[in-house]
Amino acid sequence: MSAVLRKPKTFKLRSLHSEKKFGVAGRSCEEVLRKGCQRLQLPIPGSRLCLYEDGTELTGDYFWSAPDNSELVLLTAGQTWQGFVSDISRFLSVFQEPHAGVIQAARQLLWDERAPLRQKLLADLLGTVSENIAAETRAEDPPWFEGLESRFRSKSGYLRYSCESRIRSYLREVTSGASLVGAEAREEYLRLVGSMQQKLQAAQYNSSYFDRGAKAGRRLCTPEGWFSCQGPFDVDDCTSRHSINPYSNRESRVLFSTWNLDHVIEKKRVVVPALAAAVHDAEGREVDWEYFYRLLFTLENLKLVHIACHKKTTHKLHCDPSRVYCTPAAPRRKRHARQRL
């Protein structure tokens, strides 16, 4: 069918890096380009049209194959467009210090967007650039504290409490393991658990793991509060590169509660039963409770993982039998006094 007889194709057109779009119709690529340049007051020579989606240049051969109401970007000489990821790159370039103009531009793009994938990308990006990561106190970022008790006055304080609550829950599980030993060994089991509790109290229940203000080596996050998933128990890293900053906004704070401190050697299936068995079979040997302490409550055996990386299958890992009991101290040899000449 002749192009003259065909119904004009309609497009949504905008210039590079502009959030404003307008409709334009035409029966050829040249006609759409000419109308777009007139509307945007841009020179026709050197200008061209590209699909917003992937940056494909709109030419005469492809013109009638393009879907109706496709979104186009009008480029002048020297300008390039790589698809909608170019918009994301723009915002990432100001990611560290987002300003009001960037946030407003992201909101406008999200308001106009209809494609679900791009909506998701823009919504996530908008949530990121709108964060108040640097704020620490309730006065500086009231929305972050919504739903929390008034006693929490700082973000670090609440995150320390959150970590402490997890560690305390592990201690309760270990204490309940006393039921796995007979009455004659139960007192010794609880004595060892008491020693662990005293060490935890001295270490403030390792609450520094979630505190961005703690010293490096004592925290699992960056000084800004970014946590990275350490991957499932059977791999060295997270291939999905999961990350989160619970200090950024209320939603991230809530989502962080779904991340797990996963025991590589399983707590309930392996470590607690092994501790109970060690007490039961001690036969005069001294159980190395500090070895079990490290497996239960420290990063020696804990990995921070995104919920998708938390494998709930049996880990098939066991405690080291050579470390269950303290090594007896070698008897000191008596030194013979030297005879004086």
UniProtKB/TrEMBL annotation:
GO-annotated molecular function: DNA endonuclease activity; hydrolase activity
SMART domains recorded: CAD (SM00266)
Keyword line: Apoptosis, Cytoplasm, Hydrolase, Nuclease, Nucleus
Entry keyword Ligase: no
A GO CC annotation given for this chain: nucleus
Pfam families: CIDE-N, DFF40
Subcellular location: Cytoplasm; Nucleus
Main location: cytoplasm
Keyword Transmembrane in record: no
Subunit structure as annotated in this protein's UniProt entry: Heterodimer of DFFA and DFFB. Interacts with H1-1.
Purpose: Nuclease that induces DNA fragmentation and chromatin condensation during apoptosis. Degrades naked DNA and induces apoptotic morphology.
Protein name: DNA fragmentation factor subunit beta
Organism: Bos indicus x Bos taurus
